[in-house]
Design goal:
three-stranded antiparallel β-sheet, elongated, 1 helix, mainly beta, 353 residues
Amino acid sequence: MKTKIALLFISLFTLISCSSDETSPTAPSAPSAVNAVLNADTVNLTWSPVEGTGITYNVYKNGSAVKINTVPLTEAKFTDVLKATGAFTYTVTASLNGLEGAKSVVSEKIMLELPKTQNIERSDKYNIVKYEYSYTYDTSNITKLATVIVKYSNTNVKTQTTTVLNTITKYTYSGDLITKSMNYSDDNVFKGSTEYAYNEQKKIISGTRKNPDGSISYKVAYTYNVDGTITEKYDLPDYGVGIYTFDKGNLVKYSITTPTPGEEFLAVSNYIYDTKKDALADILGFNRFLINTVNNAISSSTIITSTLGNNSTESSKTDCTYDENGYVLTKMKSVTMPPNGVMQTEKTVVTYY
């Protein structure tokens, strides 16, 4: 009898143990398709939800074992606010009843670099012109430009005399749009400002240049045409009408008609770009200004024709180097105008935060 009871107890224990193993909670599978998109100083993350109820998520950056979300996430999305520049990747885990699953596949790399300095030296047989730019940013958003200090010098090759001019520009934002820039001399004397206006689609529609006393120096207006081009018109006398053509964030064509007494000139420029980041590409709001591009122009050609037959052709070629994240480090540009050959060289060197 004791033997039967013992066998019954063992069988019951085994049954309970097996039943317990079958109902033990398991960690959910890893999320898939992690997508990361840079937007100014934030990275917007999304991923494919894991099936089931009660699922929560954690997000990890650059392979760290410490999650970057402060509370468990109940939706398949997260926004990471960047406090520094660099390169970033993300993984996501799913959790259920306190059990965390394996990390997802690694997201595509996100890169954010902001220019610290940019030095440009332009030389021809008449002058050597140097620009030294220094950039600082807002502490509340690392992509918001605070100031640009410019040191300018122009040395006459023949006389060896040098003209120096140093300026400081301070920027004001409304959201992600630059609404005002204020110019000062290097001894902090106010020299004037430019105010920018935008339409509902956040496209720039005008710029108003003001003198130090607040009076208007000039205005420029931008019109968006049905063919995708943008017309630029200044209210200055004898200043031509410009037409911009963009493709994928880059200015691929610019034409301007300039009237002069007794003659009218038409200049048409075409540009070809690389696929790497321009130094200013990630500065918030700068992409709204039509002079700024996403990538680097590596060649251009300009044909100038006139009503009196005074025609000319100018071309340029630029060789670039890049850092490990694909941002331009140096540019070596040569400008050629037949029949005299190379007429100007330009070297640009960029450092980053």
